[in-house]
Amino acid sequence: MTPYPPIPQPAQTTTKLDLVRQNLRVVKQLHPTLSKTELMSLSDLTRALHLSVSQGEISYINGKWYVTHAGLLRVALRHRCCGIRTVLQEPQSDPIAGRWVFKATVYKSPRSRGFVGYGDADPSNVSSLVRGAELRIAETRAVNRALRKAYGIGLCSVEELGAFSSPPRSATIPSPSNGSHISNGSGNGQPRLRDQLCLLIRQYNLDSNLVKAYAADFCGTEALSGASRELVESFISHLSSAAKENRTALVCKLNSYAQPVEAQP
């Protein structure tokens, strides 16, 4: 059970009425054409959840109000959430297709049995802005659903909307300058190759060093980092098929790449 780290508190809003006024003022500037009904809905949400529009905790999209991941974490922090545990659902995930499924469990107290939520993501249900970050999006969606269950929030979260999912901060980190094609980043919108390979290694309990040696030999390069993306993708597909068809034979193949140990005199 891993507790989330503390998150910064918003600017001082001593009462809910103060926050309601602040949210209405900000929203009228951002969306001057909102109706009185929509503004009243925001007022009710603010009183119920005590979240800030200016802090990005509530968003207005296509005529509806949504809570954000930051807002849900704020609610959890305010209620002294004990911890959040996430687990990758490997049988339901498909790294080759870039599909990931996570299970999240929110513990409201040390004795809580936990509130469970699932989240999935693949290239077909995420924004083009975050292609390549499906794994992280899936985990965020699972956490959001579990938090909404735990604290009785019926409002859907922004991150659960495929077309409006915002890119995680880490997605903007530039790829390594050495030209490696198996970095965590993705420059062409395809699923990240490192994630695919790591999942296969973990799923079939393979030796990572032997897999890297096999991959380099398969791609015809001294190191895997020197192979083209197409070759790495071909190797990952080959490794997945070999592991599914006959893991024992694959392990024997991998063992042939082990460095011989010199006999001691």
Range of helix content? 25-40%
Query: How far apart are the termini?
Result: 49 Å
| Subunit organisation of the chains | single chain
Shape category: elongated
User: What is the CATH first-level class name of the largest domain?
Assistant: Alpha Beta
Q: Characterize the main sheet.
A: 3 strands, antiparallel
Strand content: 5-15%
H and E order: HHEEHEEEHHHHH
Query: What is the number of E strands?
Result: 5
Gross CATH architecture of the largest domain: 2-Layer Sandwich
Question: What is the mean pLDDT?
Answer: 81
Class from secondary-structure proportions: alpha+beta
Care to describe what's here?
Residues 6-14, 164-181, 183-190 and 261-265 have low confidence and may be disordered. The protein has a three-stranded antiparallel β-sheet. The protein is an alpha+beta fold and 265 residues long. The chain has helices at residues 16-30, 36-49, 69-78, 134-150, 193-203, 208-219, 229-245, 247-255; strands at residues 58-61, 64-67, 83-88, 100-107, 115-121. A hairpin with a 7-residue loop joins strand 4 and strand 5.
